[in-house]
Design goal:
There is one protein chain. This protein has 655 residues and is α+β, with helices and mostly antiparallel strands. It contains 27 helices and twelve strands. 53% of the residues lie in helices and 9% in strands. Helix 6 (129-155) crosses helix 7, helix 16 crosses helix 19 and helix 17 runs antiparallel to helix 19. Strands 6-10-12-11 form a four-stranded mixed sheet. The termini are far apart.
């Protein structure tokens, strides 16, 4: 038994010692095999025509709900390879069929100095689409896994079991996995945590040439974080990192390695470089930023907090989502996903250590303050002036739940590390039973449609019980290996089955329809504008994956001057002045009509008289019907190709 324990410990130490080599090897092998977590195999289902090489899914299930990834973000990234105005342009002519900022909105790979702040896009610049996609997916996950582990080692006094548990619970949290490729959530967590590690290293460094490098690294991470460009998560997560930074500063400043006269110029110099870089990017994309801020959606929105109490407890049911994808009514599985935080145990344990054990630890106090502060915004409505002063008015309370879960997890682990005398086991057991029961009743009452089967209630009960056992093991500090493995298993069940393991991109580029569109686009060097007619989302984004400039692909922000040609009075402006997926349908004559469906306000239906094709300068149409009925003396359609039910037409207009 003793030899077995030593052998196990030895394996753990070997893995720890060679952790970076292992990560590099895993990253390289994943890239060589073209592996990713993308759900792009969904394209085969929507197109309805099989590709020549199969769907590419090796394990798991492609998720239709993640259409922001496989139907929007990934096609936009691929479009950069085939842009008519050169590879990876900052301003693409492919997206929207007009000059489109590909960098600042939806952050696509660009061959320009600004991409230094988007390191996970570098793979697209270096490799073909399949390996670029693999670089993007695998690089981000491995980076999050390792940076979380290193921060855990720092925060939890070098206790590997705690660091492993923290890294697994965060990296495989439902919210991270369900939102993995969208809105820059992974980037925020990676670079925000990296800033904390750099600051701690700076405080412990004597050599100033190394401090200068660390300061430059700080500026770079800051730029990467800022350019995520998604305030609803950036701001609350920024508060989490601020409260952690306060605790780190209070701890490290005591080491007396800080010199005001030398360190302030170094920090200011790095901030100046960051400011210049951000200023240059803002100037370059200023028109885009202004346009986005003045849209009807997302535009400039304002919130005052409250109404998200239930979602703070959603960590207890996240394990159900990969296997059941329950219907929530008015929301979806992605919006319900959260961090595996054990909320509110972090607050309870933190208060025990602070009050009962009378530990006046700066990090503990800062984490408690931050948790209560962000929780208050989720639960209670705030005065408008306070919400605006804290910038939280830019954040839906449902989005702030992520930050609460994140800081709650750190608080729980940190408080347990510094605790010296846990309460009696009987007390912990009683509290555990009431906590588990109370959480179950609360979830059942607040979201009854989730629990349509008794087995789901039983599953959540099991999860809560296992979670409480893990927390008990954590607090009593015995069998740390059991605790770490328990957390890994819990994390894997919550997050590892959300995204598939997918190989390559042949599901797209060996599809006969995509090949036909590519051939037609190449025939005029991608000069002619396209529309996709009578076919809805996501197929409106098929042409851009071949570099064909497409008017009604997903418009991340509006081409107002184009739509105003068809809406001279401006009565429809609110319908198209937004982020929209555009469905276009031709009719014989009449006026152009714009409409947002009530059930999907981010969709735009445009009924377009055939004569207006000339106004929009349309040269090619991908459709699923015969367009000859819309011909007139001024507009003719020439059938160029037919694949299954799809037809590709050239548009011929007369003066």
């Amino acid at each position: 038994m003793e030899n077995s324990k030593k052998r196990s410990t030895g394996i753990g130490e070997i893995l720890y010692h060679f952790r970076y080599l292992i990560i590099v090897v895993v990253f390289a092998v994943s890239g060589f095999l073209e592996l990713s977590g993308s759900s792009i195999s969904m394209w085969e289902d929507f197109i309805g025509i099989q590709s020549q090489s199969g769907d590419g899914d090796l394990f798991g299930q492609a998720r239709m709900i993640r259409s922001d990834e496989w139907a929007v973000n990934t096609p936009m990234a691929f479009s950069q390879y085939f842009a008519k105005d050169g590879s990876f342009p900052y301003f693409s002519e492919t997206l929207r069929g007009a000059k489109t900022d590909a960098f600042i909105v939806y952050g696509q790979p660009v061959l320009s100095w600004e991409v230094i702040f988007r390191p996970f896009q570098w793979g697209y610049l270096l490799f073909a689409p399949a390996r670029g996609l693999s670089f993007f997916w695998c690089g981000r996950f491995l980076a999050l896994l390792m940076i979380s582990f290193e921060l855990g080692m720092y925060l939890f006094n070098r206790r590997k079991s705690y660091a492993v548990a923290y890294s697994a619970l965060l990296s495989l949290s439902p919210v991270v996995q369900w939102w993995f490729a969208i809105n820059g959530l992974v980037e925020m967590l990676v670079f925000g945590q990296a800033v904390l590690l750099i600051v701690s290293a700076y405080f412990n460094q004597r050599q100033y040439w190394k401090k200068i490098l660390l300061a430059l690294g700080l500026a770079w991470c800051g730029g990467c974080y800022i350019l995520v460009f998604y305030p609803p998560w950036q701001i609350p997560l920024g508060y989490v990192f601020l409260f952690l930074l306060i605790g780190i500063t209070a701890k490290e400043y005591k080491k007396d390695l800080w010199c005001w006269k030398k360190d302030i110029p170094v920090i200011l110099g790095a901030l100046l470089i960051l400011g210049i870089a951000m200023g240059a990017i803002v100037c370059k994309s200023w028109n885009t930023i202004q346009t986005v801020m003045n849209t009807a959606y997302p535009g400039t929105r304002s919130f005052a907090g409250g109404g998200a109490l239930r979602k703070l407890f959603n960590w207890a049911q996240g394990i159900l989502y990969p296997f059941m994808e329950p219907a929530f009514g008015g929301t979806n599985v992605c919006e319900e996903a959260s961090v595996i935080s054990f909320f509110p145990l972090g607050i309870l344990v933190g208060l025990w250590v602070l009050i009962k054990e009378k530990k006046r630890d700066a990090m503990l106090i800062s984490l408690l303050t931050g948790t209560v502060f962000l929780t208050a915004y989720c639960v209670l409505p705030w005065p408008e002036i306070l919400a605006k002063a804290t910038l939280l008015s830019n954040c839906q309370p449902d989005r702030v739940v992520l930050a609460v879960g994140f800081i709650s997890l750190i608080l729980l682990l940190y408080a347990s590390v510094i605790s010296e005398k846990a309460p009696g086991k009987a007390a912990v057991g009683i509290v555990g039973v009431f906590f588990a029961g109370g959480t179950m009743v609360f979830l059942y009452k607040s979201l009854p449609e989730l629990y349509v089967a008794k087995r789901q209630v039983a599953a959540v009960c099991v999860i809560l019980t296992v979670s409480l056992i893990l927390v008990g093991i954590l607090w009593y500090k015995w069998k740390s290996t059991v605790f770490a493995w328990g957390c890994i298993v819990l994390a894997v069940l919550n997050g590892a089955f959300v995204n598939p393991i997918h190989k390559g991109v042949d599901v797209i580029y060996t599809n006969p329809l995509v090949q036909a569109v590519a051939a037609e686009a190449d025939s005029d060097d991608k000069q002619g504008l396209w529309i996709v007619e009578n076919i809805g989302f996501p197929c409106i984004n098929i042409p851009i994956m071949t570099g064909a400039p497409t008017i009604n692909c997903t418009n991340t922000y509006p081409v107002l001057e184009r739509w105003k040609k068809l809406d001279s009075t401006g009565i429809y402006e609110d319908t198209y002045n937004r982020y929209v997926h555009i469905f276009m349908q031709l009719k014989e004559d009449g006026e152009t009509v714009f409409e947002n469906p009530q059930t999907a306000p981010d969709h735009l239906n445009i009924t377009l008289p055939a004569k207006e094709l000339k106004t929009l300068n349309v040269k090619h149409i991908l459709t699923n019907r015969d367009l000859s009925e819309f011909e007139s003396d001024n507009v003719k359609f020439k059938l160029k190709n037919q694949v299954g039910n799809y037809r590709i037409y050239d548009v011929i207009t007369q003066e």
